[in-house]
C-alpha cells in the first residue's frame, strides 16, 4: 500500500500556492511531484521560503488555503508516495 | 572555520550590541534575547560581548572544520550533531567534520549558537553585530548565505567542562500567549481613555511583519484625542513633533496595528509612542512568533526596576553555576 507523507511548514507565515499573484499554482491537487519540487511558499519577516517535496509521489491534498496564516509545524499538504 | 551549508531562514552574527551611538541615529542591533545570548557565551567560556549566531525560526546547517566547544540556548529549535539530537543549554563538543543541523522550531523563535572564541568578524563602531538595514557589521553586513566560511576568534576566557548545564529552573519556557510588561508614556496622552483601556484589555496577534526591526500587531483600531495640529507635527492624529524613540517603544501609526520598535529600529521620528516594553521583557518579546498572542500589562518604573533586579539575580546564578564548574567534574 502507498505511504502517505505529510508536508509541514517549518516556519510561521503567510501561505502561497503561487509564485506570484498573476501566475499559476506551483502544483495542482492530484499532480505528480518529485523530490525537490516547490509545492508552495511561506512569507515571514519579508523573506519568502519555498516548501519543497521531500518525496516522489502524488500531491493528494492541500490542507490550507492560499494566503492562510500558518503556524510553525502546521500540516499543509499530503503526498501519496509512489 | 565553520562552513555554512544552508543558512536557515535568517541567521546573523550578533554580539551585545552597538552601544553608545543611539544619539547619532545608530540603533544597537545585537542579540534580541540577551538572556539566552549570555547563557550561550557563558557555557563556552566566552567573554560577555563575544559574537554568536542568532538563528530565527529555522536553523542553519553548519559544517565545523575544526574541533571546538559550542553551546546553544534560546527557544526550542532542537539541534542535532551528525543527525543525533544534542541538548540545548549545555556545553557541547564538536569535532572537525561534524555537521550541526536543527529540527523544526518547537517553542520560542530564536536560538543562539556560541562557539568558544566567538565568531570573528571586523568591529564596526565597536561591535560585531549585523545591522542588515544599513548593511554593516557581522558577515559583510548581511544574514549568512550558503558557502560562507566563518572564522573563530579568541574571545574565550575560561575553559568550561563539556556537559556543563544551566539548571532547569534558570531555563525560560516560552508560550504562544504572552504577557509583556510596559511602562506607559511618552505620548500616551494622545490616545483616548477608551483606547488606552482597550490597548491593555485585548489580545494582540503578532503579524508576519515581526523581525529584528520591530513587531507589528493586529487587534483593533485605537483612537486619538482630537487636537489642533502642532507646528512641526505631521497631520495624522498619531503624529507628534519628532522625538527619540525608546527601544521597545510602541507606536500606533494612524491608530491601526501597533508596532513595537526593537534592536534594529529607527531611533526617532514623529509617531506618538504610547508605552515602552520594560528591558527584561524585550528578551521574551524576541521569542514570540508570528501568529502568537500578546497581552500588554502596564507596570510603573519601580516594578520595572524590581523586574530588572530579579533578572540580574538570575544571570548571576547562571554565572555561578557555569563558572563554578571550572576544574570541576566533567559530566560529559
Automatic annotation (TrEMBL), chain A:
Transmembrane segments: none annotated. Keywords: Biotin, Fatty acid biosynthesis, Fatty acid metabolism, Lipid biosynthesis, Lipid metabolism. The keyword Lipid biosynthesis applies. One of its GO terms (molecular function) is acetyl-CoA carboxylase activity. It comes from the Bacteria. GO terms for cellular component: acetyl-CoA carboxylase complex. One of its GO terms (biological process) is fatty acid biosynthetic process. Pathway: Lipid metabolism; fatty acid biosynthesis. The keyword Lipid biosynthesis applies. Residues 6-79 form the Lipoyl-binding domain. PANTHER family: OXALOACETATE DECARBOXYLASE ALPHA CHAIN (PTHR45266). This protein is a component of the acetyl coenzyme A carboxylase complex; first, biotin carboxylase catalyzes the carboxylation of the carrier protein and then the transcarboxylase transfers the carboxyl group to form malonyl-CoA. This is Biotin carboxyl carrier protein of acetyl-CoA carboxylase. It comes from Peribacillus butanolivorans. The lineage of its organism: Bacteria, Bacillati, Bacillota, Bacilli, Bacillales.
Amino acid at each position: 500500500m502507498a505511504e502517505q507523507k505529510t508536508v509541514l511548514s517549518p516556519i510561521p507565515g503567510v501561505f502561497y500556492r503561487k509564485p506570484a499573484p498573476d501566475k499559476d499554482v506551483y502544483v495542482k491537487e492530484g499532480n505528480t511531484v518529485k523530490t525537490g519540487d516547490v509545492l508552495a511558499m511561506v512569507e515571514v519577516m519579508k523573506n519568502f521560503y519555498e516548501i519543497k517535496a521531500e518525496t516522489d509521489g502524488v500531491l493528494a491534498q492541500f490542507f490550507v488555503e492560499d494566503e492562510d496564516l500558518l503556524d510553525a509545524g502546521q500540516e499543509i499538504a499530503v503526498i501519496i508516495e509512489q | 572555520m565553520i562552513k555554512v551549508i544552508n543558512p536557515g531562514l535568517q541567521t546573523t552574527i550578533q554580539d551585545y550590541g552597538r552601544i553608545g551611538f543611539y544619539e547619532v541615529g545608530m540603533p544597537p542591533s545585537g542579540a534580541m534575547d540577551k538572556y539566552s545570548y549570555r547563557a550561550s557565551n557563558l557555557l563556552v567560556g566566552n567573554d560577555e560581548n563575544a559574537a554568536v549566531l542568532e538563528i530565527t525560526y529555522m536553523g542553519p546547517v553548519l559544517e565545523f572544520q575544526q574541533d571546538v566547544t559550542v553551546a546553544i540556548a534560546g527557544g526550542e529549535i532542537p539541534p542535532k550533531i551528525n543527525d543525533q539530537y544534542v541538548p540545548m543549554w549545555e556545553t557541547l563538543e564538536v569535532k572537525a567534520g561534524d555537521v550541526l543541523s536543527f529540527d523544526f522550531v518547537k517553542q520560542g523563535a530564536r536560538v543562539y549558537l556560541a562557539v568558544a572564541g566567538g565568531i570573528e568578524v571586523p568591529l564596526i563602531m565597536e561591535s560585531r553585530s549585523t545591522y542588515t538595514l544599513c548593511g554593516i557589521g557581522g558577515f559583510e553586513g548581511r544574514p549568512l548565505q550558503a558557502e560562507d566560511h566563518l572564522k573563530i576568534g579568541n574571545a574565550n576566557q575560561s575553559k568550561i567542562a563539556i556537559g556543563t548545564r544551566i539548571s532547569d529552573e534558570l531555563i525560560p519556557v516560552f508560550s504562544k500567549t504572552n504577557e509583556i510588561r510596559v511602562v506607559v508614556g511618552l505620548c500616551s496622552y494622545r490616545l483616548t481613555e477608551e483606547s488606552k483601556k482597550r490597548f491593555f484589555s485585548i489580545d494582540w496577534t503578532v503579524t508576519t511583519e515581526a523581525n529584528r526591526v520591530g513587531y507589528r500587531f493586529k487587534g483593533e483600531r485605537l483612537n486619538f484625542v482630537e487636537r489642533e495640529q502642532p507646528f512641526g507635527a505631521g497631520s495624522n492624529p498619531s503624529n507628534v513633533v519628532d522625538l527619540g524613540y525608546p527601544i521597545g517603544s510602541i507606536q500606533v501609526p494612524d491608530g491601526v496595528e501597533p508596532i513595537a520598535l526593537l534592536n534594529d529600529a529607527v531611533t526617532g521620528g514623529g509617531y506618538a509612542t504610547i508605552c515602552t516594553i520594560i528591558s527584561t521583557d524585550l528578551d521574551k518579546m524576541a521569542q514570540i512568533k508570528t501568529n502568537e498572542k500578546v497581552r500588554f500589562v502596564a507596570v510603573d518604573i519601580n516594578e520595572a526596576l524590581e523586574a530588572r533586579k530579579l533578572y540580574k539575580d538570575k544571570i548571576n546564578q547562571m554565572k555561578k553555576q557555569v563558572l563554578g564548574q571550572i576544574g570541576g567534574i566533567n559530566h560529559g
